[in-house]
Automatic annotation (TrEMBL):
InterPro entries: Coproporphyrinogen-III_oxidase, Elp3/MiaA/NifB-like_rSAM, HemZ, rSAM, rSAM_horseshoe, rSAM_sf. Keywords: Oxidoreductase. This is Coproporphyrinogen dehydrogenase HemZ. PANTHER family: COPROPORPHYRINIGEN III OXIDASE (PTHR13932), OXYGEN-INDEPENDENT COPROPORPHYRINOGEN-III OXIDASE-LIKE PROTEIN HEMZ (PTHR13932:SF1). It comes from Massiliimalia timonensis. The lineage of its organism: Bacteria, Bacillati, Bacillota, Clostridia, Eubacteriales. Its EC number is 1.3.98.3. It holds the Pfam family Radical_SAM.
Length: 493
């Protein structure tokens, strides 16, 4: 599909709205073009008259023509207002053409809960905020309810982060095999090449942690939460997990840590011995991720375990004494139906974990589900919207509250991922990172440290190399980059 932008610079915003209706579609861009004589084009135009500015959208699609326009008085034609009006016209056109009612309206590129918290802190009343979401951004009442609940549930936690707080993220980019929807940089250890990297990786990771910890101590930073994620951290053997968690305990000042999560992840990697190591490491929270309780769907996405194995792992973890367990589920997986997804949600609720996180499937170009023609046909038909709605209704009815949320590109209708929990079991790290409340120092391949000055929107990032082999090969460079931490805090503390 070709997007033509004539006399305006809102190409990014226009593409974001288009992606909600056409996820995974490739868009071509043309500027100030008059070549309209073809199908599958979207023409957007800003035209300034003597007293008014006109924002026009014409969409030629499947042999039909759709159009809408907005008129703004020149005195009010500031950049943001024109951008919003153009997106509103575009939204009207795409809704008419596709028949889809996108629940997030034109709210793209904004973290809804963060924006609502911002408005709450500025003293706006809830009715005023709800009006702004509905009238300005065209967000549905149901999504406004979700954002309101989320923002209220995280409000107190947001206030508990201090000036010198930080969290630690440790990346384990290895998995037993690759799921076919995966877009993370995670190496499957099915082959010996990746398997042989694991031990050197553990050793280098421990060295990087020592280097980070030294700086954090010297700067007087206060460690609030630790998150070991991936990939699948339990791809490590019990000995390797012990080596890593011992290093964390030895190098970091952990007295101030309020939460310590280790993603156990996939049931095909979890053993009693590894759970014991995690328990003894002082971790307070783990994740055991079913994604779905439908065996056929699991097979279809390339997970090498059954739903029963997940249930067995969960029961084992409970028996060993884990009290705070998260389960990740995905709505919109190929082969899943609304009924089987509902059964998945109901099964998860029946197991009674403290946290259930519901993701809407995001298909990125790097995943094998992506095809050059856009989404696979079965995905197009997925009733993801209804699934996500069902999850919200069923979980909140059973006492789970939404407490953090985020949206990813290439998700049907830009649907959200939502963390639900029982009261008092909010995953702090998830809120800290999503709301960008304080610095996250990241170790390991693919890790991205975010240096954050409280109250300031600008985030300074330090990137580690993505793949384990690069991480090992250029390890000295990784350490060198970490010197930016001291430089950053040298200016503000
Ligand atoms: S377990 Fe997660 S990180 Fe690993 S391949 Fe599957 S989706 Fe990707």
């Amino acid at each position: 599909m070709t997007i033509i932008c004539n006399q305006h610079k809102f190409q990014y915003e226009v593409e974001c709205v288009c992606k909600m209706f056409f996820p995974c579609t490739r868009f071509g861009h043309e500027y100030d073009s008059t070549d309209f004589d073809r199908d599958d084009i979207l023409i957007t135009r800003q035209k300034q008259g003597n007293t008014h500015t006109y924002l026009l959208v014409i969409f030629k699609w499947n042999g039909k023509l759709y159009r809408a326009h907005k008129v703004v008085e020149n005195q009010r034609a500031q950049k943001q207002h024109c951008e919003e009006q153009l997106c509103t016209a575009l939204y009207e056109v795409l809704t008419k053409a596709t028949g889809l009612q996108v629940q997030w309206g034109i709210m793209t590129g904004v973290r809804p809960a963060k924006y609502m918290t911002y408005l709450m802190k500025r003293g706006k009343s809830m009715p005023q905020i709800r009006r702004e979401f509905r009238d300005r951004y065209l967000v549905s009442d149901q999504k406004i309810d979700l954002v309101e609940r989320t923002a209220k549930n995280q409000f107190e936690i947001i206030g508990s982060s201090r000036e010198n707080s930080y969290s630690l993220y440790i990346s384990i980019p290895f998995c037993p095999s690759r799921c076919n929807y995966c877009s993370f940089v995670s190496s499957s250890i099915a082959g010996a090449k990746a398997r042989n990297l694991i031990q050197p990786y553990v050793e280098h990771l421990c060295r990087e942690l020592a280097y980070i910890a030294e700086q954090a101590k010297a700067l007087g930073l206060r460690l609030e939460s630790i998150y070991i994620g991936g990939g699948t951290p339990t791809t490590f053997s019990a000995e390797q997990l012990k080596q890593l968690t011992d290093a964390v305990r030895e190098y970091f000042l952990c007295d101030t840590v309020r939460e310590y999560t280790i993603e156990a992840g996939r049931a095909d990697t979890i053993t009693e011995e590894k759970l014991q190591v995690i328990l003894r490491s002082g971790a307070t929270r783990i994740s055991i991720n079913p994604q779905t309780f439908h065996d056929e769907v699991l097979r279809g996405i390339g997970r090498k375990h059954t739903a029963q194995q997940v249930i067995d792992c969960y029961r084992l973890a409970k028996k060993l004494g884990f009290t705070d367990i998260n389960m990740d589920l995905i709505a919109g997986l190929p082969g899943d139906t609304l009924e089987s997804f509902q059964r998945t949600i109901d099964t998860a609720i029946g197991l009674d974990p403290t946290n259930i996180t519901v993701h809407a499937l995001s298909v990125k170009r790097s995943s094998s589900l992506y095809t050059v023609n856009g989404l696979d046909e079965s995905l197009k038909q997925a009733q993801t919207v209804k699934m996500v709605d069902y999850a919200y209704r069923a979980l909140t009815k059973q006492g789970y509250e939404p407490y953090y949320m985020y949206r990813q590109k290439n998700t049907l209708q830009n649907l959200e991922n939502v963390g639900y929990c029982k009261q008092g079991y909010e995953g702090l790290y998830n809120i800290f990172i999503m709301e960008e409340l304080h610095t996250i120092l990241a170790a390991g391949a693919g890790g991205v440290s975010k240096l954050i000055r409280p109250g300031c929107d600008k985030v300074q990032r330090i990137f580690n190399f993505k793949y384990p082999f690069e991480y090992l090969k250029d390890f000295d460079e990784i350490l060198k980059r970490k010197d930016a931490i001291s430089e950053f805090y040298g200016q503000i503390l």
